[in-house]
Write a structure and sequence with these properties.
The chain has helices at 12-22, 34-38, 49-57, 61-65, 69-72, 78-82, 89-102, 109-125, 130-141, 148-154, 170-184. With 186 residues, the chain is mainly α. It folds into two domains: 12-102, no CATH class; 109-184, no CATH class. It starts with 11 loop residues before the first helix and ends with a helix. The protein binds iron/sulfur cluster (SF4) (2 copies). One iron/sulfur cluster binds next to helix 6 and helix 7. The site of one iron/sulfur cluster has 15 residues, from helix 2 and helix 3.
Length: 186
């Protein structure tokens, strides 16, 4: 078990900001561990989700925002559903990930790059265009042979299209991205 020293000073601005952005009251958590017990990614996390909540309560900004767990979270909401105190834990993870992104913490670089490529594709095409996403991801990570075997199986089945499909409401989707950028730079 990793021992994390939280005796260093509490960043209360960080605690306040997480509570404001998530609309959740961190002090309600009494560390029962039910969120961690139900989290499908606990085995991959460097810090289990209940400990992320504890560290956030204790204002340990640096430790929390550099955690790989934020980037591996699948937003499955199992933690939220299991919390006896009705804390929206998945929402807190989301807020922390946004905060980490804003403040330049890269977490797991390949996962962040995948997310960025996914979002870029949706912004540009109104929905995800798989080939564009892959090209973007590979060019930024150099992982040319990732899922190569899978690609060989899927291609003959015609599951992959080489041109983005036309989509209604593309401009509306682009507006959502523009609004996000405007809001987050205020
Ligand atoms: S939302 Fe994230 S932290 Fe919560 S259970 Fe799912 S993967 Fe784990
Ligand atoms: S389930 Fe809720 S109360 Fe229990 S550790 Fe997780 S966040 Fe805290």
């Amino acid at each position: 078990m990793n021992v994390i020293n939280i005796s260093s000073s509490c960043n209360s601005d960080f605690v306040r900001q997480v509570e404001e952005e998530s609309g959740q009251q961190l002090s309600l958590c009494y560390q029962c561990g039910k969120c961690t017990a139900g989290c499908p990614y606990t085995t991959e996390y460097d810090i289990p989700v209940s400990q992320i909540i504890r560290l956030t309560q204790a204002g340990q900004k640096e430790l929390v925002l550099k955690s790989k767990s934020l980037w591996l979270c699948a937003t499955c909401e199992s933690c939220t559903a299991r919390c006896p105190n009705k804390i929206d834990v998945a929402r807190i993870m989301d807020v922390l990930r946004h905060m980490a992104r804003r403040e330049g913490y890269s977490g797991v670089k390949t996962v962040k790059t995948f997310w960025d490529s996914f979002l870029h594709s949706v912004q540009k095409n109104g929905r995800v265009f798989e080939v564009g996403l892959l090209a973007n991801y590979i060019s930024h990570t150099g992982r040319f042979w990732t899922d190569f075997g899978l690609g060989r199986k899927v291609l003959p089945k015609g599951k992959i299209h080489f041109k983005p499909s036309a989509m209604q409401g593309k401009e509306e989707v682009a507006k959502i991205f523009r609004r996000y950028v405007e809001e987050s730079t205020k």
